Amino acid sequence: MQAQTLDKVTVAGWSQPISEITNLLAEPDKGFFKAQGIALDYVPGTGGGSAIQTMLTGQADIAFTDPASLYLALDKGEKLVAIYNIYPQNVFNVVSPKSRGIRSAADLKGKRIGVYSLSSGTRQNLQVLLNQAGISESDVTIEVTGLLNFAPLIQGQVDATAATDTGLLVGRMKGLPEVDVIEVKDHLNLPSDIFVVTQATYEAKKPLLKRFLAAYRDSAAWMIAKPEEAAKIAVTRAINGRDEALNLEIIKLRNISTISPTTDAKGLGHFDAGVMQTGADAFHKLGLIAKPIDMSQIVKSDLIP
């Protein structure tokens, strides 16, 4: 019997192989992609912007990125298509110790704020939050503190830090004191992460992309149905996965962000097109992108299983 020839698909990630993406990392154990005839590869990154760059330089087929990074790339003239809504819920936040008295976005003026990296969703969501409060980035001091890193906040080197729900969970377990949390979704509930491809890839590889998305959806559905199994697998597959109990808490948070009223109605991966347009309009209004973008030309649902 002939061995099955697998089609290689490379995903450019925004992060290292961390426990919240266990559904991708579990491929050697679960074989969701192999079942669709795909050999999955993952290239780590340092934020959504870097994921798109990795894809644009031909090192990956698909970018695991965020809407903000998509808007910025489209604004530069890149021809891109959003094909799957990974996390419909905005998981970004800004965290500060209670002692700092930062209760609202307006309180961030003049403060030092940490971000994972300058090309990360933490920075772009912080910009949205500041702009909603009538503050520009020049009114604050941005410090790059590294991925999931609350040490500068705990040590008082920054007044607040832009993070994610899982980052905050880990920070609390590592001794983060009582904090105030400003949720970006209360201002703009954009998806946290989406799959993006170049227009050329979208046109040329539709059958392969359909198989990829079917495999991804199966992997996401597995992690939602069996978080305990995923937490166990993350111990050996994720670079930050040694603590199985912590993995489980992170995976549960990520599972919550995977579902929304839209996915309840239409299935995992579906977009709320209106929200994506609202985000683009907000970025334009705030001067983060130079020209308006018609997202109906960018967001495509025809490949979602």
Quick overview:
Helices cover 40% and strands 18% of the residues.
Topology, element by element:
Layout: E1 7-12, H1 22-25, H2 27-30, E2 38-43, H3 48-56, E3 62-65, H4 67-75, E4 80-87, E5 92-97, E6 112-115, H5 121-132, E7 141-144, H6 151-154, E8 160-164, H7 165-173, E9 179-183, E10 193-198, H8 199-204, H9 206-225, H10 227-237, H11 244-258, H12 261-266, H13 273-285
Parallel strand pairs: 1-2, 1-3, 6-7, 6-8
Antiparallel strand pairs: 3-10, 4-10, 5-8, 5-9
Helix pairs in contact: 7-11, 9-10, 10-11
Write up this protein:
With 305 residues, the protein is an alpha/beta fold. It has 13 helices and ten strands. The strands form two sheets. The chain has a five-stranded mixed beta sheet with strand order 2-1-3-10-4, sandwiched between helices. The protein has a five-stranded mixed beta sheet with strand order 7-6-8-5-9. α7 (165-173) runs antiparallel to α11 (244-258) and α9 packs across α10 (227-237). The longest helix has 20 residues, at 206-225. It starts with 6 loop residues before the first strand and ends in a 20-residue tail after the last helix. The model has no long low-confidence stretch (mean pLDDT 93).
